[in-house]
């Protein structure tokens, strides 16, 4: 055990302090600790950046979904309008039958396209959600590893 004297400011009297290590050893230990801390901090910051980016991306996808839903509503209105036009065309003239067939094809294609887009968007949101869950699990795992290492290395030191 090393005993060192130090001055208490203002009083001028020496006080003995007990150190387990000398100042040089303390610096080495502190630097090693900071270096080890950095090995955990950088991946954590990267993960946090990924999470933030994913949250922004999810927000963008949510906005995109809202826009697609608005387009779907508008497309349904358009479809209903096309149906009415189709009925009017049938009652007016037999010449317009080819136009009616074209509108039916367009209506079917639009409905299929809308259904396809709904499925694609649902799949995309599912993938983003799974990616978010994976990142969160990795972060928890990193935190648990850090806590285990910290718990393992923080046993009290015995000084003789």
From TrEMBL:
Protein name as annotated: Uncharacterized protein
Domain of life, per lineage: Eukaryota
Keywords carried by this UniProt record: Coiled coil, Nucleus
GO BP terms, alphabetized: mRNA processing
InterPro entries per record: THOC7/Mft1
GO terms under cellular component: THO complex part of transcription export complex
Region spans: Disordered: 139-160
Composition-biased stretches (Basic and acidic residues): 139-149
Primary residence: nucleus
Species of origin: Malus domestica (Apple)
Coiled-coil residue spans: 65-92
Location in or out of the cell: Nucleus
